[in-house]
TrEMBL record:
Protein name: Squalene/phytoene synthase family protein
Range of residues in the leader sequence: none
Name of one Pfam family that matches: SQS_PSY
Domain of life: Bacteria
Length: 289
């Protein structure tokens, strides 16, 4: 007798496979880190990333390239958020990425307190082109810190009988790691954001003094996150260490590159070395452990 999945189980596994394809196509860095997760949290983190990427693509170019104006983009984004809410409530969506995310949200306790700020930040991209420190912080909370908190919910709750509330130090670490990731990407994409999208997320970070201040903030956030990674469940530590160290390496390379230089990248060989280091259980770069 065949033990192949059928019905909802087959559909959900297919949805997970679609989410995995999204992360493999869009991010080699996060794709490498996700492969270091244990089988318990791995599909759920991919499911989060896939939804985040789809929402981001609505506001960052592909929807515009397809001929959608900002109001239509807003309507599509609103529709996606409504689909997510309905799928979490019902346990099903005809959209495979939404179905995968909803399954993760239901199992791991990801609620509207994290989902609503994310979509609010995505909407900001439709009508805000320049950020000051206050609007930057609000944007980064919704676009990146809550994603870190969603992943934290997965790390603690995937496969458990009921979701548990994370400790305060883990919450702070997840938020600061997400913020560091976002600010690194803002610096990497400074020229593209300005030239292609007409956006300035860092309030003039092309200026050397301002750029240094942003990098100092990134490194402080990375150090704070590194301190709590050892408190994560064992099947998550290597992956989070790898992601942390990849972005620490990007930060280091950004300090050595002038504003306006080609987009900073970590060579594949260095990525492999950092992944191997994390897999061996080494502490995060910059950690005092």
């Amino acid at each position: 007798m065949s033990n192949a999945p059928t019905g909802l189980e087959l559909y959900s596994q297919t949805a997970d496979d679609v989410a995995a394809a999204v992360i493999s196509r869009y991010s080699t860095s996060f794709g490498i880190a996700a492969r270091l997760l244990g089988p318990r949290p791995r599909p759920h983190v991919r499911n989060i990333y896939a939804l985040v990427r789809v929402a981001d693509e609505i506001v960052d170019g592909p929807a515009h390239d397809a001929g959608l104006d900002p109001e239509r983009e807003r309507a599509v984004l609103d529709g996606l958020e409504a689909e997510v809410a309905e799928a979490i409530a019902s346990g099903f969506s005809a959209n495979l990425v939404v179905h995968a995310f909803a399954r993760t949200a239901r199992e791991c306790g990801i609620g509207d307190d994290l989902i609503a700020p994310f979509f609010a930040s995505m909407r900001t991209d439709l009508d805000t082109t320049a950020h000051d420190d206050m609007s930057h912080d609000a944007y980064v909370y919704g676009s990146a810190e809550v994603v870190g908190l969603m992943c934290l919910q997965v790390f603690l709750n995937a496969g458990m009988s009921a979701p548990a509330k994370p400790a305060a130090d883990l919450v702070d670490g997840a938020r600061r790691l997400g913020a560091a990731f976002q600010d690194v990407n803002f610096l990497r994409d400074l020229s593209d954001d300005a030239d292609r999208l007409g956006r300035d997320y860092l309030d003039g970070a092309a200026d050397d003094e301002r750029r240094t201040a942003v990098l100092d903030r990134i490194d402080a956030d990375l150090a704070a996150a590194a301190a709590v990674i050892p408190h994560l469940p064992p099947d998550c530590r290597a992956a989070v260490t790898c992601a942390h160290d990849l972005f620490a390496e990007l930060s280091r390379r950004l300090r050595l590159s002038p504003a306006g230089a080609p987009r900073v990248r970590v060579p594949d060989g260095v990525k492999a070395t950092l992944a191997a280091r994390a897999l061996l259980g080494r502490p995060p770069k910059g950690s005092r452990s």
